[in-house]
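Hey L., structure's done. Input below.
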Amino acid sequence: MESNKVSGILSIILGLIFIICPIFSSGLVSILIGISLVFLGIASILIKFSALNVIIGILAIIFGLLFIFNIDALSFLLGLQFYIIGILLILLGIAGIFAGEGVSKIASILIIILGIISFALGGFSITNPLFAAILIGVALIVQGVRLYILE
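Output:
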C-alpha cells in the first residue's frame, strides 16, 4: 500500500474520531494549537529580530503555553483561539510585508489571508467551541479521501 493511501486512511480515521468525540478532540486541538503558537512565536523572533516581531513572538509563545497546559484561570480563551491565532497571523503578515529583504511578500499576504479566515472561523467557534473540532474532523476526512484517491 502506498504512503498516500495509508495517510488517507489514517486521516479519515482521525477525522471520524474528531467528529465522534468532539470534547476529547477539542482538548487535543487546544494542545496542537498551543504547540503551533509556540513554534510561530519562536519563528517570529528568529526570522527578523525587530521590536514588532519580538512582541508578536512573545505573545504567541505565552498564548501557546496557555493552550498547551490548559490553564483553568484562562479557560475562557479556549473559545477565542481562532481569534487569537487570526490576530497574530494578521500582525505577522503585516510585519512580513514591511520587513524588507529576506521575507516573501506573497507569503506575507497568504499569512494575512489565513489570519482573516481564522478570525472568521472564530465567529463560529465562539458560539460553540465544539464546532472547531467537528470542522477539523470534516477537513481531515476530505483530505483523507483526497489522499486515498490520488496516486
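Helices lie at 3-20, 22-47, 51-69, 81-97, 105-127, 130-149. The chain has six helices and no strands.

-- N.
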